[in-house]
């Protein structure tokens, strides 16, 4: 039976095992503590507002969960409006945990606080495909001076 996220928060379970050998059965019960981990987490760091007509660097950071060989992570920035762009293909190498990305605001980019921008990350953990999303952040586009 699969654990639900609510059950997994308990972290301590009793496991019952039964085996039979040569016509004799044996029952064993053990208390087991599980550590539930995120296979990967991702966050986005942007130090200041971006000025229309300019670009600046932002940092995408991943933290890989323990227990698996580090794999390359493909990241994508979502929720940007027209005229505010980042490269479409972004990859953080297996031996790295962050990447600097250039974010550009065209001269005609709308001056506004852009809500709900997030980064998604895709990688492999223990041979299985896993994905994660950052918390939503606000990116401020300000007028050129």
Helix % is under 10%
Q: What's the Cα radius of gyration?
A: 23 Å
Name the CATH homologous superfamily. Answer: Immunoglobulins
Shape: elongated
User: Major sheet, described briefly?
Assistant: 6 strands, mixed
Beta-strand residue fraction: over 45%
CATH topology (level 3) name: Immunoglobulin-like
User: What is the CATH top level name?
Assistant: Mainly Beta
What is the distance, rounded to the nearest whole angstrom, between the alpha carbons of the first and last residues? Answer: 61 Å
Oligomer: single chain
DSSP strand tally: 12
Question: What's a concise summary of this model?
Answer:
The protein is mostly beta strands.
Explain the overall architecture.
This protein has 145 residues and is mainly β. It has a single domain, classed as Immunoglobulins (Immunoglobulin-like), CATH 2.60.40.10. It is 3% helix and 57% strand. The chain has 1 helix and 12 strands, in the order H-E-E-E-E-E-E-E-E-E-E-E-E. The strands form 3 sheets. Strands 4, 6, 8, 10, 11 and 12 form a 6-stranded mixed beta sheet that branches. The protein has a 4-stranded antiparallel beta sheet with strand order 3-5-9-7, with no helix packed on it. It is elongated and about 85 Å long.
Give the SSE map.
Elements: H1 5-8, E1 12-21, E2 24-33, E3 40-45, E4 50-51, E5 55-64, E6 73-78, E7 84-85, E8 90-92, E9 98-105, E10 112-125, E11 128-133, E12 137-142
Parallel strand pairs: 4-12
Antiparallel strand pairs: 1-2, 3-5, 5-9, 6-8, 6-10, 7-9, 10-11, 10-12
């Amino acid at each position: 039976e699969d654990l639900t996220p609510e059950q997994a928060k308990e972290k301590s379970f009793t496991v019952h095992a039964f085996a039979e050998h040569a016509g004799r059965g044996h029952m064993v019960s053990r208390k087991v503590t599980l550590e539930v981990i995120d296979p990967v987490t991702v966050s986005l760091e942007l130090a200041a507002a971006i000025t229309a007509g300019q670009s600046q660097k932002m940092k995408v950071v991943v933290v890989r969960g323990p227990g698996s060989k580090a794999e390359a992570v493909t990241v994508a920035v979502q929720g940007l409006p027209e005229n505010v762009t980042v490269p479409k293909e972004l990859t953080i190498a297996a031996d790295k945990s962050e990447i600097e990305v250039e974010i550009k605001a065209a001269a005609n980019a709308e001056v506004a606080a852009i809500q709900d921008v997030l980064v998604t990350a895709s990688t492999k953990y223990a041979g299985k495909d896993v994905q994660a999303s950052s918390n939503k952040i606000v990116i401020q586009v300000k007028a050129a001076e």
